[in-house]
């Protein structure tokens, strides 16, 4: 709804002052649910609809039209389930077989209950609708606060670089960024999830934007005088300027920064001009005006240290073109100032210190969702007995997680960047010559002529025969992915075609913004919110790139990152107006229609049965329906970034999109590494090895980054411990492909999740709720990456409810305890649940080398267990037509009996028989995993059930 286009501002104000004046206290039943018009002051009309027995939709708005733009995230839901609606006093109840929703006819607040009447969640009264405009159109800023259990755990919300697992009591800004993916879907340990259907910048927790420190704190300089911190600006090793600053603001580029074609940060004080100070030190103190937990965010690039009362609270580095936030909290009391010291080496970088006063105590741990631009409040309440059921509900709403090709779960080698055709092919040849398993190689950006971004043409001097290049990759039994941006230079035919139809965003051009290539070129992005624009975008790819036989599409910069280091307000202007509305209204959703166009185009193309694979740097609810994986962006090669990828990936996976990855080793690199300083080679190799060990247990296993090169044979010399461990973990990944591909299939067939927060499987063990550096990889593996330099052991929590085996040694441990796990350089702590049945394939060089190869079943005794081994052709959509097979495998611990059940289903090319080996892992045996371990028993399986017993 656009209220100002329909009625005057005065009428709109009257409507807001007296919402739902007509028929107050009434409700009506619709074909999907009920509409209530509450009587209370400040109450708004609310509609509750039954989508499925366990899913309800709630919409509230200033009037009972509930008008809003078409949802991007929700797919067609078909007919509603059976429901009943009846009034009891001041409450109208909507009831399905699984849920009850009680709507107050006074306040409009909705209370959700399960089938037995147990309260799951309740809205607090007084929804917030604050009028605002975006690019001349009228909207509301909205907020919904809930009365949730203060002890609940909250998860999901996408991918965020804050190292947080459980978001109870935290604030999360959902705003797409190079390294942050906004997914407005939250799961609770209380048996529900909330999918918030809004495309704009959204906040979980405190709805207030962070403010400069001087807004709510008393800021004093180094001498104790109020008014600001003392800032000392260094030049040539000495202080060249001293300032008193209440808000040192170097956060964003001004909108016209590049109007002159310059690329200097600017805005430095005298005498620096456009030359960056070599160092800035701010000292002084901050004092609270209110007691409680005060939250701080430091937006920064380059080297930064923040000390509070002498304690180091931030010590980070980030590349200059990709600054981001670091969070910390302080317990503060009025009258008790805290000393602050900030040391920053700017190097033309970015910095600002921001702050939020404590929230009201009764809101701090309550579920709260707010959005900057909306027509209505619109969300879906999903009930589930466990988090898998809740994620299944999310996928019912937003689409199934279509299967990726089997080869996508092999190893990916990438680099920023292979500069020539020969360079790329030589890398793949070297992998094959060394017998190091690999499935995929990647051609990153800039294969085109320098001034032809978006043309999809190849620079003939560097890539003389792209078709031959692709064929050579295929001849080596590998696949190739190519980078495609939504970015275009004026003057290219592709730009002209899109621009003539109005499908190129204009502001970036009007601002005369120049990019970083060569002398700097003007550019802009296309608008994927138009179906015609999507079709053109795909056709251009199809004609110029797909024709060569590329296997996968790397859709980069899909936030969209039209230009880095701009404010949210300026970014919104540069990505709009879209075909559907202002950029601010659709701020977070660009990646979804962009992936849609490529996926749907490919499925309608020359090879409609060839599975798509898309890698995209951003995402939004529904991404999983377009054959897409996301990665964590241009994170940096530092230990703290390595650690933060654990919580980032787990929460992203719990947001309903199962395929995720990162740049193994981190993308951007400090000069101490890029210069190959001998003093830092050991740390560089160890960092990459630890990240690689972690990556072997990520949904997508992918190495990428800036120089130094990331190929296994470039990271460490052959025969070294690092080299051998890299190869060992690569081989292990391929041995695990039967297990991993079954997990991948389960994301479609059973709405499963590969990378699992511990709370998904051990919700009854309160100890796991906040663990942010361990996770489950499928049902069997507890993964505990090592994220400290030279650490040779780490604390690991083994969840309660059963026993655990050390994968490497076979040692057995009881659950419900912390242990100090060995972590030699060559191995990462890895534990397997008692009762797990883990199928492993043969040694292979690529994923489909031995489709009928032997399978070894590792059976971890001590509990009953099961596994359903899935197989299909691995490359087509025949699985959607029911062409697949499963072999059910069950272990009865009391009987010592392993049953390999009768095969279910079939597919073209299915092996009719194969050899199964069995390896018993038992407390008395003490056997860990070994590539050369002899099986305890071997059988030939031809599709009929058989039972194997332990001796």
Automatic annotation (TrEMBL):
Residues 224-381 form the PA14 domain. InterPro entries: DUF5110, Gal_mutarotase_sf_dom, GH, Glyco_hydro_31_C, Glyco_hydro_31_N_dom, Glyco_hydro_31_TIM, Glyco_hydro_b, Glycosyl_Hydrolase_31. One of its GO terms (molecular function) is carbohydrate binding. GO terms for biological process: carbohydrate metabolic process. Keywords: Glycosidase, Hydrolase, Signal. It comes from the Bacteria. Residues 1-20 form the signal peptide. Pfam families: DUF5110, Gal_mutarotas_2, Glyco_hydro_31_2nd, Glyco_hydro_31_3rd, PA14. Coiled coil: none annotated. PROSITE patterns: PA14 (PS51820). Belongs to the glycosyl hydrolase 31 family. PANTHER family: HYDROLASE, PUTATIVE (AFU_ORTHOLOGUE AFUA_1G03140)-RELATED (PTHR43863), MALTASE-GLUCOAMYLASE (PTHR43863:SF2). This is Alpha-D-xyloside xylohydrolase.
């Amino acid at each position: 709804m656009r209220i100002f286009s329909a009625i005057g501002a005065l009428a709109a104000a009257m409507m807001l002052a007296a919402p739902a004046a007509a028929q107050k206290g009434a409700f009506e039943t619709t074909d999907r649910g009920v509409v209530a018009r509450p009587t209370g002051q400040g109450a708004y009309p609310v509609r509750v609809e039954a989508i499925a027995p366990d899913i309800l939709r709630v919409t509230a708005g200033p009037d009972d039209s509930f008008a809003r733009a078409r949802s991007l995230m929700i797919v067609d839901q078909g007919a509603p389930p059976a429901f009943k609606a009846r009034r009891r006093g001041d409450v109208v109840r909507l009831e399905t077989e699984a849920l009850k929703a009680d709507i107050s006819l006074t306040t409009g607040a909705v209370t959700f209950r399960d089938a037995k009447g147990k309260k799951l969640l309740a809205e607090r009264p007084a929804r917030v609708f604050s009028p605002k405009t975006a690019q001349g159109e009228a909207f509301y800023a909205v907020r919904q606060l809930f009365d949730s259990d203060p002890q609940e755990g909250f998860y999901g919300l996408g991918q965020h670089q804050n190292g947080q697992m459980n978001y109870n009591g935290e604030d999360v800004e959902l705003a797409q960024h190079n390294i942050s993916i906004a997914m407005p879907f939250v799961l609770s340990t209380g048996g529900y999830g909330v999918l918030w259907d809004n495309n704009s910048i959204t906040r979980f927790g405190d709805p207030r934007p962070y403010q400069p420190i001087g807004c709510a704190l008393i800021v004093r300089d180094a001498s104790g005088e109020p008014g600001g911190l003392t800032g000392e600006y260094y030049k040539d090793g000495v202080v060249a300027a001293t300032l008193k600053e209440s808000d040192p603001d170097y956060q964003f580029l001004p909108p016209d920064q590049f109007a002159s074609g310059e690329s200097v940060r600017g805005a430095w004080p005298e005498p620096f001009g456009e030359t960056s100070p070599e160092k800035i030190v701010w000292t002084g103190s901050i004092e609270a005006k209110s007691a409680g937990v005060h939250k701080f965010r430091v937006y920064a690039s380059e080297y930064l240290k923040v000390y509070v009362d002498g304690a180091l609270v931030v010590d980070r580095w980030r590349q200059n073109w990709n600054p981001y936030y670091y969070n910390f909290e302080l317990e503060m009391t009025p009258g008790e100032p805290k000393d602050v010291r900030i040391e920053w080496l700017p190097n033309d970088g970015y910095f600002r210190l921001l702050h939020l006063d404590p929230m009201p105590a009764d809101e701090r741990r309550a579920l709260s969702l707010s959005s900057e631009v909306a027509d209505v409040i619109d969300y879906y309440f999903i009930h589930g007995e466990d988090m898998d059921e809740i994620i299944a509900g999310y996928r019912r709403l937003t689409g199934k997680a279509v299967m990726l090709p089997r080869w996508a779960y092999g190893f990916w080698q990438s680099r920023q960047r292979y500069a020539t055709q020969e360079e790329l092919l030589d890398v793949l040849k070297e992998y094959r010559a060394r017998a190091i398993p690999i499935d995929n190689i990647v051609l990153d950006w800039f294969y085109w002529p320098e001034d032809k971004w978006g043309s999809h043409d190849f620079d003939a001097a560097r890539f003389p025969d792209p078709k031959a290049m692709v064929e050579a990759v295929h001849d080596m039994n590998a696949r190739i992915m190519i980078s495609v941006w939504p970015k275009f230079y004026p003057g290219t035919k592709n730009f002209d075609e899109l621009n003539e139809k109005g499908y190129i965003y204009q502001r970036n051009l009007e601002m005369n913004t120049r990019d970083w290539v060569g002398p700097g070129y003007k550019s802009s992005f296309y608008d994927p919110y138009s179906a015609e624009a999507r079709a053109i975008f795909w056709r251009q790819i199809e004609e110029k790139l797909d024709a060569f036989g590329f296997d996968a599409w790397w859709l980069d910069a899909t936030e969209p990152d039209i230009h880095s280091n701009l404010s949210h307000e300026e970014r919104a202007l540069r990505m709009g107006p879209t075909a559907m509305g202002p950029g601010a209204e659709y701020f977070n959703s660009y990646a979804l229609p962009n992936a849609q166009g490529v996926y749907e185009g490919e499925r309608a193309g020359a090879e409609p049965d060839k599975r798509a694979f898309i890698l995209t740097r951003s995402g939004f609810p529904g991404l999983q329906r377009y054959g897409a994986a996301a990665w964590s962006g241009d994170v940096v090669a530092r230990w703290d970034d390595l650690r933060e990828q654990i919580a980032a990936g787990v929460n992203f996976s719990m947001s309903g999109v199962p395929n995720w990855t990162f740049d193994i080793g981190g993308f951007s690199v400090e000069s101490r590494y890029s210069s190959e300083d001998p003093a830092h080679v050991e740390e560089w190799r160890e960092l990459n090895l630890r990240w690689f060990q972690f990556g072997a247990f990520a949904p997508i296993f992918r190495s990428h980054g800036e120089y130094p090169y990331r190929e296994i044979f470039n990271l460490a010399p052959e025969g070294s411990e690092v080299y051998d461990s890299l190869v060992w973990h690569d081989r292990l990944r391929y041995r695990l492909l039967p297990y991993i591909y079954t997990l991948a299939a389960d994301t479609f067939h059973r709405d499963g999740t590969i990378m699992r927060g511990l709370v998904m499987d051990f919700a009854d063990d309160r100890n796991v709720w906040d663990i942010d550096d361990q996770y489950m990889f499928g049902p069997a593996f507890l993964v505990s990456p090592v994220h400290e330099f030279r650490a040779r052991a780490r604390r690991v929590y083994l969840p309660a409810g059963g026993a655990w085996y050390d994968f490497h040694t076979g040692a057995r441990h009881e659950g419900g305890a912390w242990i100090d796990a060995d972590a030699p350089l060559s191995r990462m702590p890895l534990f397997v649940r008692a009762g797990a049945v883990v199928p492993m394939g043969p040694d292979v060089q690529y994923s489909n080398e031995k489709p009928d190869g032997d399978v070894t079943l590792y059976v971890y005794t001590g509990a009953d267990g099961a596994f359903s081994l899935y197989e299909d052709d691995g490359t087509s959509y025949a699985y959607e037509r029911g062409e697949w097979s499963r072999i059910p495998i069950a272990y009865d611990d009391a009987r010592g009996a392993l049953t390999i059940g009768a095969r279910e289903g079939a597919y073209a090319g299915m092996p009719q028989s194969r050899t199964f080996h069995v390896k018993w892992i038992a407390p008395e045996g003490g056997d860990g995993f070994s590539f050369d371990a002899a099986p305890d028993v071997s059988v030939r399986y031809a599709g009929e059930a058989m039972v194997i017993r332990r001796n």
